[in-house]
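Suppose a colleague, Dr. K., hands you the sequence of a protein chain of 80 amino acids and asks what its three-dimensional shape might be. Before reaching for any lab equipment, you can write down a predicted structure in token form. Begin with the sequence itself:
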Amino acid sequence: MHEVGICEDVLDAVLQRADGRTVRNVKLRVGIAHHMTGELFDRTFPLVAAGTVAADAHLDVDIVDGDDLLLESITVAREQ
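The predicted structure, expressed as tokens, is then:
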């Protein structure tokens, strides 16, 4: 289940950038060489993100040619 490992790597990057703030959206660019689909991310990411500030984040996954795995951006909640 390589998708778990990929989602864990993405989560690590997201959490570093979020710096404790609640994550609302995650935008990824993923190459087809990773054999991942948007649906796989939609199912797997919430499992690995459970209990973190990214637990309820919406994923926007763009599947492209090649072997890219790029965290393009995250959107975090405004601090109150």
